[in-house]
Known about the structure:
Elements: H1 3-9, E1 28-32, H2 35-41, E2 47-52, E3 58-63, E4 76-81, H3 83-87, E5 91-94, H4 103-114, E6 118-119, H5 128-136, H6 140-145, E7 153-161, H7 162-169, E8 186-196, E9 200-205, E10 215-220, H8 221-225, E11 235-236, H9 244-259, H10 274-283, H11 291-309, H12 315-331, H13 338-343
Helix pairs in contact: 4-5, 7-11, 9-10, 11-12
Amino acid sequence: MLFGHFLQQISQDLPAPAALDELTPGSVVVAVSDMQQLRETGLPTLLRFGIISEQNEVICQCCATESAEIPETPQFTIKKMNLGEFAGESARIYRCSYPCLRNAEIVAMAAKMHEGITYCKLRSYPGDDFVAECLTGLSAEELVKQDSKIGQHWWTPLQITLQQSLKWLGVEMPAGWLPDSADVQVFDQIHHGIGIEGNYVIHFSTRRVPDGSNRIKADSLQEFRSIGDDEASGSAVKYKDETPGLRLTSRNRAVWVFCHAESWGAYNLMANNCEHFSRYCRTGRKESRQVLAAALDTLGALTAILSRNTPFLFLPHVIGLRLLIKNVARLLGRPEPAIREELLLVE
């Protein structure tokens, strides 16, 4: 696949074709609606990958589904269109990072796949898998075998303050109830993301986002790890099944969500956090195993503070809420001491 390698290249100014005649058949073009946003923040823009054909047209993969929700059987088709229809004014020339076939072979393969092929399974939404297959003669699964990071669920340590944790839990405390130490006291948490090609990670984060909101975005693995205190820390979460097919699905889910990020929903610690996103990509289920641990840590610290600074009559409500969460953990079959141990089964 090409999306991650394209992210590596946009640190430089990719050339824009002045005219279609300048493009050699078999060359790759990318339609990117906002290059500056993608380069500076890692936030999504409209992306589409295509191959110039002998007839000076673009052959590309298109998806009939425009929803943020991935359907069980999305339909992808291979289409041919002129450069203006494909990219308007936003075309950029892509330099392939894989060993490629000769140009004539690339065009012939793209033209053959254009002859009525329809995919009724999850593919990469921008069509970079189709282009990569034409460039290399390899299937997407074979390309995944060459890069162990593609589709992996990555984690890195993260420390948050009590104030941040309360905010993510949606708890609004009256002014003056919390001491200044609430901005200093930190909890050890874990940040999650999905690896793609080119040493990039797609994740749900505030990092480099201009307005400071949580967004689905793409960063280098080094930038992802630097969210914590140690850029060398973190690893991949172990799953029982690490076959190329499942890692390809994980990667394609992440890219799909990235391309529809505006519809993914607002960040919510309890129901839509970075781990929910990553486990959804890897397994198809939105789960978070650290939510209860985070809630218990936060409420435990809050109980300790309030017991020293608030009227005695308020304490039963705080303690009762903490006990309620403990009981929920037991009902889910995940006792509190095991929550982090289960999460940290890493390579």
